[in-house]
Please model this.
Amino acid sequence: VSGGRIGYNIERSAKIDRSLGIDRIRYSHFKVGRFWHSESTWQDCKGGHHILKTLKASQNTVSYLDGTLVLNHGNSASSVNVTKFHDTARNEAFKRLRDKHGEEYLRHLNSTK
Model:
């Protein structure tokens, strides 16, 4: 019985990721002037476009989701750290999106079938 429940939860989690669009992310890492930027973009099942940016701003490396500050990582600008910080921000942003909107988007995805 528990194996079936685990399978159900994994499938449900995959559907939530699909509805939020986070299973189809485009990622880029590039330099602007002297500083490195990382960017992830995706589209959810309702047609909304989302962008997560990690960049150097006011002496700190910060991450923004759709223009809203989600994390302040401190004052490192190294290419490796920007990538690492972006991965951390992406994981945190996706967790927040799943927690806040997962059920709503899953219902929307199921209603369009």
In short: The chain has a mean pLDDT of 86. DSSP finds two helices and five strands in the chain. Strands lie at 26-32, 35-43, 49-57, 60-65, 68-74. Residues 59 and 105 are 37 Å apart (CA to CA).
